[in-house]
Hints:
By secondary structure, the chain is of the alpha+beta class.
Amino acid sequence: xxxxxxxxxxxxxxxxxxxxxxxxxxxxxxxxxxxxxxxxxxxxxxxxxxxxxxxxxxxxxxxxxxxxxxxxxxxxxxxxxxxxxxxxxxxxxxxxxxxxxxxxxxxxxxxxxxxxxxxxxxxxxxxxxxxxxxxxxxxxxxxxxxxxxxxxxxxxx
Length: 157
């Protein structure tokens, strides 16, 4: 077994939809980015790639490649799951935390867990997702962006 950690952050802007864990969240702002800018999926991808010593998401999905413009991060996560499987690994457990002052996310977390699990072909009981605020501190507390942390435990197939 191996463990990897991932982190991602994107700026909140108007004119974009907010997607977290593959779920479109009703909100007046969305995350800036080349793909759908789903910080939760991006952090999980980096955790999986780190645990398997396969690099990072920028190596596989460069932000300047037009092929990934507005791409679904759940689709990219599925590709990472397939990549680690080709190297003899699978996700044994994931735990992630979204850092955002707003919007409230608790009601969306069960669907996020289901979608992430489905993308990786694992049981949703192996996917933990939490949300927290920074109590008004820092960029997330000022509503300038959203971040996510993820830890992945992988095991040999």
